[in-house]
Amino acid sequence: MNTPQWIFMTPPLNGILSEEIASILRKTTGEHLIGERIGMLPLAENGIILLKIKDNIEGALLWMKTDQRTARVLGFGIHPELQGKGLGSKCWNIFTEEIIRQGMKNITLEVRKSNEKAINFYRRRGLIAKGWIDDYYLNEKGVLMELSLI
Predict the structure, then answer these.
(1) Which residues 6+ apart lie within 8 Å of 83 measured at CB?
(2) Which residues have C-beta within 8 Å of that of residue 100, sequence separation ≥ 6?
(3) Which DSSP symbol is given to 125?
(4) Has this prediction a pTM greater than 0.90?
(5) Percentage of residues in the chain with pLDDT exceeding 70?
(6) Sheet holding 128-137, edge to edge
(7) Exposure string (b/e) for 125-150, b if CB count within 10 Å is 16 or more?
(8) DSSP string of 65-99, one letter each residue
(9) pLDDT, tens digit, 9 for 90 and up, residues 103-139
């Protein structure tokens, strides 16, 4: 595998990059995202973490601040062919270091009830399922997960 590059970005994004990010997240989360929607998200400073290999975007983590202490993950995925190689863990570590640098202490996210692989990934990182969100996803419940870093 070529050397991965981790890139921080802060909005705004151009249309081509927004569509590349949407494509990765569609492949990994099942969300029906389009680049235009990615470009409208209220992402934080350094709220975009990209995995670039060669000239291709192969992973993305998008997050926003919900308050001074809380980061909310809006989308996270590593290309399916690259999963299981530690890249998701590396991205998560980069993300947590960044939010700590910005003075935040909590992480929240939602994940599809059927996405057991992602739920287990988040559990291994200390996130706890706090409840169900009915109708969060089309025809499926979401699982609200949280983590306090203190």
Answers:
(1) none
(2) 149
(3) T
(4) yes
(5) 96
(6) 5-9, 48-53, 56-67, 70-78, 106-112, 140-148, 128-137
(7) eebeeeeeeeeebeeebbbbbbbeee
(8) EEETTEEEEEEEEE-GGGTTSSHHHHHHHHHHHHH
(9) 999 999 999 888 999 999 999 999 999 988 776 666 7
